[in-house]
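Run log // design_07
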């Protein structure tokens, strides 16, 4: 058995005093107390027994973090034994750092969706998936639950992107200032980091300018050198009428870096920038789908000022931004997602890219048809191609393997859907839970409230990070 990584000590993590985990824990506190009273062993109150128990817990934690068990194995262990679950939950960050890369998608990591309605108060709305509803219980939960901040700060928040449990929100600048004010938070744990105000030479629209955003966490770099609180935020925007630039924020430095002009590689108009799709990350590189190719931007952990930029060409069949999306497989293969029709059924087609290691300049879309994967959705039958006019590809969940998309009324299937790339199974996301489309007729209209997201101006899928997920299993 290989020894655990030395980057983390096997000490118990502190209990969560805020965030959604604390909300879940408080709702179950009476049940947990009863379990403790019934399951308390004789002699555990002595200091000797307590010391022995601590040593045993450290040994178990080291075994779980040794890398010999997969994430699925650790999850099964927590479900098998209550004591094992307690050890994993109290050392969730340490254990998660020692786990090997995910060998398969874990759909339970997809907690829900963040949106913001077009109203006077743009308070973010959270719509849980089936996994999120099971985890958070039968109660409506909001972004403010568990955050120890002034609620007015998030009243006008706009969800921008999320990754590995972190959520990026755009806040409303105060005092009539223009530009972008962002914060990075973890709703599950309640952690929140405010970023310095970022101004631009753009003429602001509603006090902000359009941009693309990519979030890097410690999992994208050397784990032994970066802490769990480390992150980098990369913005893609226009500075002036004809200049496209990149700018990066590093949490370890606490400030924005200098602008990097990339107009020679990709010149994006203001209109296209307003329609920019979500970025996906592959091996410390972010990718945005553009009209003529995927814009790849690779960061260097050791040299923050070093940014490698290339355009990966592809044959895009549709120039509408709502019809295209990028994703990354578990083996770190970049792919392009296209929706169309197959024998009158809505279908998704995945085309993979070939990239040599970390050199994104070698990236090209694979021209072999055998590399493409077709996902016909037999639950959604289209009468004609015009029924797809309301289709919007919204988000790819990289750890759970879900493609989130919305359809409007004219399609005949209004609502928000999740396609699992492991199979052609498609689920309809509804308020509080998710059910199979085949079974949706079993629910009465009073119970099933469709989350019709076709008109949503912003849409962010949210997945837990592995450390939080392990802690939540016994919350």
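design_07 sequence
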């Amino acid at each position: 058995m290989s020894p655990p990584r030395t980057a983390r000590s096997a000490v118990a993590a502190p209990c969560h005093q805020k965030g959604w985990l604390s909300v879940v824990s408080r709702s179950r506190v009476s049940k947990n107390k009863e379990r403790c009273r019934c399951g308390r062993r004789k002699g555990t109150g002595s200091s000797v027994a307590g010391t022995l128990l601590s040593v045993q817990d450290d040994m178990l934690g080291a075994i779980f973090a040794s890398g010999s068990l997969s994430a699925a194995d650790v999850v099964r262990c927590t479900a098998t034994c209550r004591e094992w679950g307690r050890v994993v939950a109290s050392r969730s960050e340490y254990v998660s750092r020692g786990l090997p890369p995910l060998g398969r998608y874990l759909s339970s990591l997809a907690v829900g969706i963040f949106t913001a309605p077009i109203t006077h108060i743009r308070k973010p709305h959270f719509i849980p998936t089936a996994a999120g509803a099971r985890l958070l219980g039968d109660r409506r939960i909001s972004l403010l639950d568990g955050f120890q901040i002034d609620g007015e700060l998030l009243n006008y928040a706009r969800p921008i992107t999320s990754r590995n449990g972190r959520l990026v929100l755009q806040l409303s600048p105060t005092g009539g200032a223009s530009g972008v004010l962002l914060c990075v938070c973890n709703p599950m744990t309640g952690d929140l980091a405010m970023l310095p105000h970022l101004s631009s030479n753009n003429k602001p629209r509603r006090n902000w300018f359009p941009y693309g955003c990519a979030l890097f966490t410690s999992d994208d770099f050397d784990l032994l050198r970066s802490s769990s609180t480390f992150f980098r935020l990369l913005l893609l925007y226009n500075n002036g009428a004809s200049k496209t630039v990149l700018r990066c924020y590093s949490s370890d430095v606490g400030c924005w870096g200098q602008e990097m002009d990339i107009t020679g590689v990709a010149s994006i108009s203001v209109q296209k920038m307003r329609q920019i799709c979500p970025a996906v990350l592959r091996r410390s590189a972010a990718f945005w789908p553009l009209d003529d190719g995927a814009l790849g931007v690779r960061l260097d952990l050791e040299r923050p000022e070093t940014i490698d930029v290339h355009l990966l060409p592809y044959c895009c069949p549709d120039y509408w931004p709502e019809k295209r999306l990028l994703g990354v497989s578990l083996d770190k293969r970049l792919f392009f997602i296209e929706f169309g029709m197959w024998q009158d059924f809505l279908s998704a087609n995945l085309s993979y890219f070939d990239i040599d290691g970390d050199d994104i300049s070698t990236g090209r879309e694979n021209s072999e048809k055998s590399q493409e994967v077709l996902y016909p959705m037999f639950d959604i039958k289209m009468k004609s191609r015009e029924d797809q006019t309301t289709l919007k590809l919204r988000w790819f969940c990289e750890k759970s393997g879900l493609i989130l998309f919305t359809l409007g009324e004219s399609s005949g299937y209004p609502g928000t859907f999740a396609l699992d790339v492991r199979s052609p199974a498609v689920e309809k996301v509804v308020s509080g839970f998710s059910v199979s489309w085949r079974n949706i007729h079993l629910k009465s209209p009073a119970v099933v409230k469709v989350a019709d997201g076709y008109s949503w101006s912003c849409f962010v899928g949210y997945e837990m990070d592995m450390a939080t997920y392990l802690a939540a299993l016994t919350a």
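Residues 107-472 form a domain with the Neuraminidase fold (CATH 2.120.10).
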